[in-house]
Amino acid sequence: MSTRAALVTGGSAGIGLAIATMLVDEGWSVTIVGRDRDKLQAAADRLGTERVHVVAANLAEDVAEDVVADHLRHHGRLDLLVNNAGAGLIGPIQLKSAKELDVELNLNLRSAVRLVQESLPPLRVAALRDGASWIVNVSSMTATETPPYASVYSATKAALVAFSRSLHAELSSEGIHVTALAPGLVDTPGTGWAPDDVRDRMIPAEDVAAAVLFLLGRSPRCFVPALPLVTAGAGMHELVDWRSFG
Ligand SMILES: NC(=O)c1ccc[n+]([C@@H]2O[C@H](COP(=O)([O-])OP(=O)(O)OC[C@H]3O[C@@H](n4cnc5c(N)ncnc54)[C@H](OP(=O)(O)O)[C@@H]3O)[C@@H](O)[C@H]2O)c1
Question: Ligand 1 site: residues with CB under 6 angstroms?
Answer without folding.
Answer: 9-10, 12-16, 33-36, 39, 58-60, 84-87, 107, 138, 140, 183, 185-186, 188-191
